[in-house]
Amino acid sequence: GGARGRAARAGAGAGMGAGSSGATGAELVGLAQRVADAGGAAAARWFRQPALAVEAKGDASPVTLADREAEAAMRAVLAAEAPDHAIYGEEEGSSGGSSEYTWILDPIDGTRSFITGKPLFGTLVALVYRDTPIVGIIDQPVLGERWLGVRGAPSTFNGARVSARECPGGLSSSYLYATTPAMFIGERNAGAFEALKDAVREPLYGCDCYAYGLLASGFCDLVCEADLKPYDYMALVPIIEGAGGHITDWEGQPLSWDESKMGAAGEVLAAGDARVHAEALKVLRGSMTSVGSASP
Questions:
Q1: Are residues 92 and 231 in contact, defined by beta-carbon separation less than 8 angstroms?
Q2: 197: helix, coil or strand?
Q3: Could you tell me which of 205, 230, 231, 232 has the C-alpha nearest to residue 220?
Q4: CA distance 197 to 195
Q5: Distance between CA atoms of 191 and 229, rounded to whole angstroms?
Q6: What is the Cα gyration radius of the chain?
Q7: What's the first-to-final CA gap in the chain, in angstroms?
Q8: N or C, fewer C-beta in 10 Å, the chain?
Q9: Where are any strands of DSSP class E within 86-235?
Q10: What is the rounded distance in angstroms from the CA atom of residue 32 to the CA atom of residue 37?
Q11: Could you count the other beta carbons within 10 Å of the beta carbon of residue 96?
Q12: 225-254 burial by CB neighbour count: b if 16+ within 10 A, else e?
């Protein structure tokens, strides 16, 4: 954290009032920063270490000791400072709380980047109040970079305000990111992404959560992904929206927290420009409709 964390904390709670536990917005943002500090530091210790052991989870995605250590470090901060808050983490699942706050943690988003030595993974921290994400952090501990989003306030990168960019040329002039084309599984999703990829200026791959930070900072125009769990995208919502961008599912619906669906995979579309977002939704929907009508 250090200077980076202190700079990002300054004025960061401006858009939030006191919540049900009596904590102010600024206090909750400060806590989110400390959670990200702990997780990022634990993950960074293992980065590019030859002794890093990789296992496969039930869904065949890789998990490492770094994932588990980082989440444990994040949970320890919350246990000490907000024991009544619920937690949902990628590695350890759900632990209930008596307040209306839930922390959603992804200690290493982009494990494949992490295990192949590419510093574009991120530690994700989201704070949800009831069903609404109100604080989000993307932390890249190796590069020392952090995006912070707070509902109702401007998003920041290492403490400086960021803004998503307009794309005057529309969808056909936009730069699109997705983590991998392999994430679009099944005829419906694969066909929809294929149509979108063909409609943009250039599709790019391999950034995981980092692509959403680039979008919030105004360096790319569109991120389209599928097969994501809530811990993959909840932290992104306040960051994109606080930068003036737009982030929804592929139906154009807001991304909200629903504990009954916390294990379900979903699709995400984020754009800096409202018109590009609308154009991209139209392409995705049109392709999915044609696939559906062609089915027996």
A1: no
A2: helix
A3: 205
A4: 6
A5: 21
A6: 18
A7: 55
A8: C
A9: 86-89, 93-95, 101-109, 122-129, 132-140, 145-150, 156-157, 160-161, 175-178, 202-205, 222-228
A10: 9
A11: 11
A12: bbbbbbbbbbbbbbbbbbbbbbbbbbeeee
Three-state secondary structure call for residue 248 = strand
Q: Which residues contact 182 (CB under 8 A, 6 or more apart)?
A: none
Report the b/e string of 211-221 with b at 16+ CB within 10 A. Answer: bbbbbbbbebb
257, 234 Cβ separation under 8 angstroms: yes
Cα 155 to Cα 19, 87, 133, 147: the distances in Å are 20, 24, 14, 7
Considering Cα of 150, then 156, then 162, then 167, what sign does the dihedral take?
Answer: negative
What is the reported pTM? 0.89
The owner of tokens 């109702």 is 152
Q: Please, which residues have CB within 8 angstroms of residue 112's CB and are 6 or more apart in sequence?
A: 62
